[in-house]
Amino acid sequence: MSMKQYNWKPVISSLVRQLIKDGFVPFKVDDGGDELESTPSAKSAVDAMNAVDESYLLVKKNGKRFGLLIILGNSPEETVADHSCDPELEESVNTFSHRWAGKPCPMVEI
Is the pTM of this model over 0.90? Predict the structure, then answer.
């Protein structure tokens, strides 16, 4: 008998792609461990965030650093539970959220 579970990877990947498209570069993920996990690639950032229910994504743009609180378990459009106050980051997060508005989290068979 197969079972299904939430698959947050497409949601998180969508967020990271939107941030990168808007000029934000992910560089660390705080996954609640003792040390921040460096993320030399978008894939490693997605993998680190997908491994836990709550994480903090650090991004940079034009020499400034910003943070986004990521909660898996909210609806996909509410994956970013909080973020640094910056108009460009706000626009990027809103674009991501609108893309997922009203859509359920993808599922995967296990």
Answer: yes
Domain boundaries, the chain: 10-101
Position 38 scores a pLDDT of 79
- For residue 19, the SS3 value is helix
The H helix count followed by the E strand count for the chain is 3, 7
Predicted confidence band of residue 32 (pLDDT cuts 50, 70, 90): confident
CA distances from 59 to 6, 7, 25, 50 (A): 26, 23, 5, 17
For the range 57-63, what are the long-range contacts, defined as Cβ-Cβ under 8 Å and sequence gap of 24 or more? Answer: 57/26, 57/28, 57/29, 58/26, 58/27, 58/28, 58/29, 58/30, 59/19, 59/24, 59/25, 59/26, 59/27, 59/89, 60/24, 60/25, 60/27, 61/23, 61/24, 61/25, 61/88, 61/89, 62/23
